[in-house]
Amino acid sequence: MNNRTLTSLALAFASFIGLTACTAAEPERTKSNAPLPPVSIKKYGDVVAALDFDHATAQTPLSRIDRNAPRFSTKIFHAIAVGTDRCLTEQGFQEVSSKTDWSPYPESEDRQYGLWSVEYASKYGVSLAPNRGPRELDTLALGVEFNKAYADCMDSAKDDLKEILTYTDSPDIDSTIKWQSHDRTRASKAGKKALVDWRACMEKAGVVLDPDDSRPSAQYQVRSKEAEIKVSVLEAKCGVDTGAVRTLYDTQARYEAAYLDAQAAQVKAFVKKRDKVLHELDEAIAGR
């Protein structure tokens, strides 16, 4: 495609910088993510997740430092776009990054436990809702030669930011806490019961589940869009009506809070490094 979007930009180097512009699924694990010592969440009963049920997004204690958060990833996209523009103008092409809204983009759905936005499920089924995630940067009207140059210049801009992009892709305390909190939530008594209740609600409504992940069978998607939407709505409604979604994200939030406290020194060092990278990105965006 000649139409360059920030989504395609994210996908173009997602394997390189570890960013995802699509749905938040189960946290990614790497060999470098050494397990942390177990923590107790008994003292964290007052910690809860801020849930947006319409858009299926969750704010948890880790959200404020997460490198995959829109505030952080948008700066990376912006810095790459500015570097790309510099390369383009040197070749006589016009710059395009100033025509884009670089405020943090609306988050995509968090589906790490399943679908839970009834509104989205009723409209899109398992498909992602439009207008979530990175915004479009349309260069189609600028022609063939511009778009050829754009691709090469984007590669050059990424090379200039290689150290930052490598840091973004490297495992650190934020990614370790994320996946370990997710796993401990699933393994907890409250988490197990929530998942069982969610599954039982769907089966009671006649939804055939995939035995591997206890989600609605993919055969519904093959049957028709109508069938897909119907079971997607049932999945989302069951997650909300049984309280499973609330329990799972609150439990995850408590584990995150406990780990952030238990690993306070490492978290402090991480935040210092992350803030330094944010400053470097601001400098790159300013052309310095």
Overview of this protein structure:
The relative contact order is 0.18. This protein has one domain. Strands 1-2 form a two-stranded antiparallel ribbon. The chain starts with 5 loop residues before the first helix and ends with a helix. Helix 7 packs across helix 8. By secondary structure, it is mostly helical. The radius of gyration is 21 Å and the shape is flat. Keywords: Signal.
Number of strands: 2
- Overall structural domain count: 1
How would you spell out the order of helices and strands? Answer: HHEEHHHHHHHHHH
The number of helical elements comes to 12
From the spread of the alpha carbons, the general shape counts as flat
The end-to-end span amounts to: 32 Å
The radius of gyration over CA amounts to 21 Å
Major sheet summary line: 2 strands, antiparallel
Which strands sit side by side, in order, in the main sheet? 1-2
β-strand amount: under 5%
Helical amount among residues, as a percent range?
Answer: 40-55%
Poorly predicted regions: 1-23
Overview features:
288 residues, disordered N terminus, 55% helix, 2% strand, 12 helices, signal, two-stranded antiparallel sheet, mainly alpha
Short description:
The protein contains 12 helices and 2 strands, in the order ααββαααααααααα. By secondary structure, it is an all-alpha fold. Keywords: Signal.
